[in-house]
C-alpha cells in the first residue's frame, strides 16, 4: 500500500501551512502607508505608520491556518499506524474535512481579506510567496486523499478474499 506517500503529502501540506507564519501574504503600497498582511495580522512597514486594523482582524485566518496545520499533521502521523479498515475510513473523513478547511481559508483570504486590507489606504495588493502556499497544500491534500481512497478499496478487496 502507498500509505507512506500519502503521509508525506499530508506532512508537506502541514509544512506549507507552517511556513505561512514566516512568509507574508501580501504588501500594500499606499501614498501614506505601507502595509504587510500576514497570517497573524496586518502590520505597517513605516516606523510612524498606523495600522487601521485591530489585532483580532485576522484571527479567522490564523485559526483556520492552525486548524489545517494540525489536521494535516494528524493525518500524516495517523497513516503510519493505520492497518484496519475502520482506521482508514476515519482518516479519510478527516482528510475531507481538511480539504473543506483549506478551501474555506483560501476563499476567506482571497474573497475578503485581500481587498479589505488595502481599502483604507487605497492600495492594491502585491502578492507574495505566502499567498500561493495554501493552493499547493490543497493540491497535495487532494492527491493524498485520492490515494487514501484507493487504499480503502484495496483493504476492502483483501477483506473479501479472506
Q: Care to describe what's here?
A:
With 162 residues, the protein is an alpha+beta fold. It has helices at residues 3-19, 59-81, 85-118, 133-161; strands at 26-29, 34-38, 41-44, 125-127. It has a 4-stranded antiparallel β-sheet, with helices on one face. β1 (26-29) and β2 form a beta hairpin. α1 runs antiparallel to α4 (133-161) and α2 runs antiparallel to α3. It is elongated, with a radius of gyration of 19 Å. The two termini are 18 Å apart.
Descriptive labels:
Butyryl-CoA Dehydrogenase, subunit A, domain 3; 64% helix; 162 residues; alpha+beta
How many structural domains in the coordinates?
Answer: 1
Class by SSE composition: alpha+beta
Question: Cα distance, first to last residue?
Answer: 18 Å
Q: How would you spell out the order of helices and strands?
A: HEEEHHEH
CATH fold-level topology: Butyryl-CoA Dehydrogenase, subunit A, domain 3
Helix content: 55-70%
Number of helices: 4
Average pLDDT value?
88
